[in-house]
Amino acid sequence: MQNDYNPDESSAEPLVSVGGITAAATAIIGLLVAFGLDLTDEQRTAILGVVAVAAPLAVAAIGRRRVYAPATVAKLLRR
């Protein structure tokens, strides 16, 4: 029985943590403020709130295309 399933080795760890995305957004906001972007505390909070909601959605959308459920892997290996 020959198997045509060859996983992409570069996708061994396709997901970036939500914490990493949130930390990056926080750092970017801090950098922009340090270079003169005038943001109020409310604006910063709103931006980070959007990031907190969007980050898990982005990770799920990207990750879903790059990972397989165990049942799918088993099915592919049985071919």
Largest sheet features: none
Helix and strand string, N-terminal first? HHH
DSSP summary, beta strand count: 0
Q: Assign an overall shape.
A: rod-shaped
Whole-number mean pLDDT: 79
Low-pLDDT stretches are: none
Percent strand equals under 5%
Counted by DSSP, the helix tally is 3
**N→C terminal distance:** 7 Å
The computed structural class is mainly alpha
What share of the residues lie within helices?
55-70%
Q: Indicate the radius of gyration in whole angstroms.
A: 19 Å
Give an account of the 3D structure.
The protein has 79 residues and is mainly alpha-helical. Helix content is 63%, strand content 0%. The chain is rod-shaped. It starts with 17 loop residues before the first helix and ends with a helix. The mean pLDDT is 79.
